[in-house]
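Observation: inputs received (chain + magnesium ion).
Thought: call the complex predictor directly.
Action: predict_structure
Action Input:
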Amino acid sequence: MVELKTPGEIEAIRAAGTVVAEVLGTARAHAAAGITLKELDEAARDILKKAGATSPFLNYRPRFAPIPYPAVICTSVNDAALHGIPNGYRLAPGDLLSVDAGATLDGWVADAAVSFTVGEGSEDDARLIAACEDALRAGIAAATPGGRLGDISAAIGAVGRKGGYGISTDLGGHGVGRTMHEDPHIPNRGKARRGLKLQPGLVIAIEPWFMAGGNDDCYADDDGWTIRTGDGSRAAHVEHTIAVTADGPVIMTLP
Ligand code: MG
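Observation:
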């Protein structure tokens, strides 16, 4: 069931979103060659604690997961696209890192992600990341009252396909509110003018992620969480939580 949020609830989600932006900014600032993914998770824990927030990721256990999620951020490196568990891996120059973070503040959740390269990255990675960011902008621009959910999917998919990238429809955007994953699901490709009608009060995470090899297949590796590209190519992922308002889409996860 899709629940619309009141203006007051949207402001509460925006407050959580400010914390998410701070977590992601800190991760980006810390993510130098030689730093472990675990250290990035520890830095994120500090930010959440100082803000009086908790992580909706920690101990999250959807049906597919063999273990509760053990960290407060997801750190997905190179061929890992989503849900990479922060471990002892030390970042190396040229790695493509996606960081996904959420915060729960006063009972309301926000969710966002960024992708970047460690130090000097390749031109291919820069192009992949830029395509995800363009798709995010296009998806957000389509989130206007009177439009439909499929307009967001179609806008994202068009950017990804133009770049020649693989796009899985298994994991995508979602409603956000009291919990991290609410209805509706928002696939990263689909048909315009189809699906749920967009109304003021709808709060959703829009999260394009593309696979450089152009293949749409992905798989969960042995830890049961990390989603990797089927062809071993690199992936990037970006995300904002946004609110549909009478004045158009408003991003909740900005500093
Ligand atoms: Mg999300």
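Thought: report the result.
Final Answer: The longest strand covers residues 96-105. Residues 82 and 227 are 5 Å apart (CA to CA).
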